[in-house]
Amino acid sequence: MASEKPYLAVTCTAPVNIAVIKYWGKRDEELILPINSSLSVTLHQDQLKTTTTAVISKDFTEDRIWLNGREEDIGQPRIQACLREIRRLARKRRSGDEEDPLPLSLNYKVHVASVNNFPTAAGLASSASGYACLAYALAQVYGVESDLSEVARRGSGSACRSLYGGFVEWQMGEQADGKDSVARQVAPELHWPELRVLILVVSAEKKLTGSTVGMQTSVETSPLLRFRAEAVVPARMAEMIRYVKERNFQGFGELTMKDSNQFHATCLDTFPPISYLNDTSRRIIHLVHRFNAHHGQTKVAYTFDAGPNAVIFTLDDTVAEFVAAVRHSFPPESNGDKFLKGLPVKPGPLSDELKAALGM
Amino acid sequence: MASEKPYLAVTCTAPVNIAVIKYWGKRDEELILPINSSLSVTLHQDQLKTTTTAVISKDFTEDRIWLNGREEDIGQPRIQACLREIRRLARKRRSGDEEDPLPLSLNYKVHVASVNNFPTAAGLASSASGYACLAYALAQVYGVESDLSEVARRGSGSACRSLYGGFVEWQMGEQADGKDSVARQVAPELHWPELRVLILVVSAEKKLTGSTVGMQTSVETSPLLRFRAEAVVPARMAEMIRYVKERNFQGFGELTMKDSNQFHATCLDTFPPISYLNDTSRRIIHLVHRFNAHHGQTKVAYTFDAGPNAVIFTLDDTVAEFVAAVRHSFPPESNGDKFLKGLPVKPGPLSDELKAALGMDPTPGGIKYIIATQVGPGPQILDHPHAHLLGPDSLPKPTV
What we know:
EC 4.1.1.33 (chain B), sterol metabolism (chain B), Mev_diP_decarb (chain B), Alpha-Beta Plaits, cholesterol biosynthesis (chain B), GHMP_kinase_C_sf (chain B)
């Protein structure tokens, strides 16, 4: 923790999270408060993580930050918001102990370096893991022990959900100052050990509408979004939390797909319309529905964020067969053995009936 | 009109209509009553129409129907609903005249032949023009003069909007029996003479979800659709009618695009989700937004129905430039001179600034062809006997 040492270095890692009840739209752009609550699944850091080193020193004259080896502008508003917030929390904590003077280290500047173990081109949102890691690392060097939701959130809304493992809720809160807009763990990492996640990285395309501008335009122009936030999401949050606690994959999967589709529906209802799904995304959706219809139950679920990549949820006993179905419908080009990364998947058979059912 | 003649033949034509405030979802599957009102533009029959001949004869032993030269099942529920409804109206009218007995012709069976002058593969909904024409032709032979909204509607909901030219509203109605769910003309054919319509026919794809099943699934599974019908469409209907009456293209165009997008949004919110728009549709949407941004105003508007084809609205002074922009972004493959059909469009220039603003990689062959048309009239009766699709033997004439 923080002390009077003239130099302190801390390195942390933080995970990526995937929302199953989506966040899209802010009620406060500065404090980054959402128009609805959201729920996510934290992914394992063995496959995806951000690593961040934070160093404070009395000899530093300014804050500096490097992302993936390249120095970035420390004045970027989101980064500044995190720094201000962590320092505010550090001073608040200290001033709670009436006798102790504030340690000098609170005034030290910080150097931060951060890397992701996954490519940016994969289109996986790295801002959540990045800002969660930044918040966590800064908390270590500045001696902050309180809830870090606000620090992470001010960097990127969904980053607060990356502060916990397992299944995480970001409660939208009601207060104007956002103090009650916090993340909390709904179920721990080992609650549902059979659950598996497959990220289907779709071929890269030209630049898509960024989330910040996109969701702002949605809030301003989509009548359906407001209705979603007020009348649909609250009940879905309660329902999803129940499915997670009960390990009900049928319910979890179906609601995950519905919420992904509804999020993308509100993007289409935006003006100008935003389309994150492309023809490949739609073929994946089609594949999943046919796979489930063949089995007569929801065995696989998709969700899509602000890009064409599919995140697939399934149970461990279905992974091999589904991967075989994906290979069959989307034959890999050259990198046959580099097609599957991360957790090992034993090659699975594809029955003739399933091939016929997929019909693609 | 109906009489005691032993034989009567009538041939009519009816137009296609394109909704700018969309109908999607029924509150009554049998009477075909919608969950919200809708508004459409009637297209000109010079480019798109259904032609229908109806013949009644005391010698016919059964009703029969031929569509595009092929005999179809007369028992098909929608066709039966139209026939029952027209006959009910015919009897009702007659029985209003206390002294006159019902003419015998009301009991005559009917032969119907119908053709479209546009290909089915073009993905243009022919059920609206088809059922409107059927309703109109049957009304002629059976002597029905009352409102035909219900007859057409029972065949296909949007068909009631094809009973009028110009700009047409299908009022959803409130009564359970659907008697107040009727179409009415908002503005006539010649109200907005500068308005032009371009149908961009996109390359055909595999079979899409049909409208009837699709909208039923949407009503059953989409929370957003219910909200749209109750809380969004009523105000949009009033707004759109105002824009039409004022000939306000900026307002008309923007609202048309928003309503098309919202309709497709509710399809995506359906479970399983329905996607009628494909990558080409999205590129067309993108093109329109960039074209409008370049001009700093809404000069072009798109709308999409239950398929990937785009229907573009614009004013006559913009057609040439927009067609040039389309050719540039979607270079036609082989049929250079057959790319543009319908109303003549003089070749227009594409400025370098606009080319830069469009900034899209070309998609060769993405659009198969364009049909240029304009606002048109309602159903017409054809007087000349050679227009009849059924010959003296009351069977379809051989097609040339």
